[in-house]
Amino acid sequence: MDIVLEVLWMLAEAGWQLLLQPFYYISIILIMLIYRRQVLLERKLFHVKLHSWGAQTWRTVLGGLLAGVSISLLSVFLGMTLTMEGVICIWAVTLLLLLFRVRYLCLAYSVGLLGIAQFTLNMMPTFQGAGWVAEVVRIVRELNIPALLCLVAVLHVAEGLLVRWQGASFAGPLFYEGKRGKLVGGYQLQSLWPIPLFLLIPAQTAGAVLPWTPLFGGEAWQGGFQLIALPIVIGFSEMTVGLLPKAKARVSSGRLIGYGIVMLALALLSAWWSPFMLAAALLGIILHEGLIWLSRFEEQNRSPLFVNPVDGVKVLAVLPGSPAEELGIQIGETIVKVNGVPVATKEELHAALRMNPAFCKLEVRNLAGESKFLQRAIYAGEHHQLGAILAPDDKAPVAVRMRPISLIHLLRPRREGERIDSRSNRRSADASPADKKPIQQQDIQAETKL
User: Fold this and answer.
1) Pairing mode of beta strands 398-400, 440-442
2) How far apart are CA 385 and CA 323, in angstroms?
3) Is the pLDDT of residue 331 over 90?
4) Chain centre distance of CA 252
5) Contact criterion met (CB below 8 Å) for 194 and 280
6) Is the pLDDT of residue 428 over 60?
7) Would the pLDDT of 446 be above 50?
8) Same domain, residue pair 101 and 24
9) Residues of the domain holding 109
10) Is 180 in the same domain as 118?
């Protein structure tokens, strides 16, 4: 009973400690900026808003809270030797990496780099430094890298489960520049989760002793235990032109869980044999980059799914609450006929809908190639295109060109949008009639990350 009361008191102190740390709030602000940027991009491409960045933020915060509770319960048996100075060191490296790439926000990169730094410093035992340098050296040398690598492994397993649960619901449709400059439809699946962790660490002063010995820490647990708050951000960003969002989320989820299992084995090996720690830290970064390379390679070699066939128009996305959603139209399906009239372009679809402004009958071909027939009344004020976003044609005004994104790009999405407009207008004004093309490809920043 004394242990239970002490744990509850420590949990309250750790919760207060979490509220006082700026890192948890920084992570939520970053998530808000990413979702806000996604909404601006949707409005730029489609002139509609498919998602609410506020609702997305709350969903990821709640999902991250659930993951944080689960991992914190697991850490009771794993243990961790980490000080508040170590927490600040990890976040300092993470924020520094964030300036270069948003995907470097992953703990695998910061822990991997700190593991390499610790191994290098241990190879130079005479190097001590002076002033604040000596303090940084001491903090890095005291980090328990095997335990942190184990935490990286558990976090990626949790991330895989969250991707399976929520990943597809955050997918946003985009127009991409495909092979040979042709526009294709696709999706960007992007989400971040702020994870509030409460880690069990050995106490600095004598206190209640656990009835079991956690995996990491050894004899340090004989002096008692305490809790420390560690806010972490996990997340992924994938693009797909050849798979449906749910299928892509399942693939990414399985690979993230597999990566977590491999990292867990590497962490345990490095705890058992300390020279293996450098290899584990390096492999954590290399394997993570390998997952990203594999995803990009597969997408480059897949046939695009969201392109219009010769006998219909492909549905790229369906607006929530629209007539298309009520009719049961699914993304990836093809609208073949409207009111008995074959439609091969967006303009023909509009013309066929106007034939009967009060009612519409559709022939839709599903992903299995089977036809289904849908019908519904049309009411005043409803979306003129049934609320279905179609795959791009040769008249699509903008496309997304994939480029790395950094923290700077998240802080200026509106300025980026203004630059896009001015470039489009300038090209239209300066080009000769023979040089003008209907497709203006824009440098909208995007990122692919696991």
Assistant:
1) parallel
2) 9
3) yes
4) 11
5) no
6) no
7) no
8) yes
9) 2-301
10) yes
| pLDDT digit string, tens, across residues 111-128 | 999 999 999 988 887 766
Would you say residue 365 lies in a domain? yes
> One-letter amino acid identity for 48?
V
Integer Cα distance of 158 and 162 in angstroms? 6
Of 421 and 65, the one with more pLDDT = 65
User: What is this structure's pTM?
Assistant: 0.82
Q: Mind listing the pLDDT tens digit for each residue in 163-190?
A: 999 888 888 898 887 777 788 899 988 8
Give the closest residue to 337 by CA, choosing from 364, 310, 357, 371: 364
In this structure, the answer to whether residues 331 and 286 fall within a common structural domain is: no
Give pLDDT, residue 442: 33
Q: Does 295 share its domain with 332? A: no
Show the CA angle centred on residue 144, arms to residues 127 and 26, nearest 5°. 100
Residues 207 and 71 in one domain: yes
As a whole number of angstroms, the distance between CA 210 and CA 219 comes to 12
Give the end of a domain, one of 390, 410, 435.
390
Query: Quick one: CA dihedral 327, 331, 334, 338, positive or negative?
Result: positive
Mean pLDDT value across the chain = 81
Dig out the tokens for 184 from the structure. Answer: 């294709």
**Co-location of 234 and 351 in the same domain:** no
Count how many domains the chain has: 2
The pLDDT value given to residue 416: 42
Chain centre distance of CA 389? 23
Q: How far apart are CA 177 and CA 309, in angstroms?
A: 18
Pick the most confident of 91-95, 159-163, 384-388. Answer: 159-163
- Alpha carbons 316 and 327: distance in angstroms, whole number: 16
Out of 301, 322, 346, a domain closes at 301
Residue 364 in this model has a pLDDT that exceeds 90? yes
292 and 317 fall within a common domain: no
Q: What is the CATH number of the domain that holds 350?
A: 2.30.42.10
Through-space distance between the first and last CA atoms of the chain, rounded to whole angstroms: 43
CA distance 134 to 44: 50
The number of angstroms, rounded, from the C-alpha of 88 to the middle of its chain's C-alpha atoms is: 24
Residues 190 and 292 in one domain: yes
Helices and strands: H and E segment counts in the chain = 13, 11
User: Other C-beta atoms within 10 Å of 313: how many?
Assistant: 22
Contact of 391 with 307, CB cutoff 8 Å? yes
Please give the single-letter amino acid code of residue 345.
T
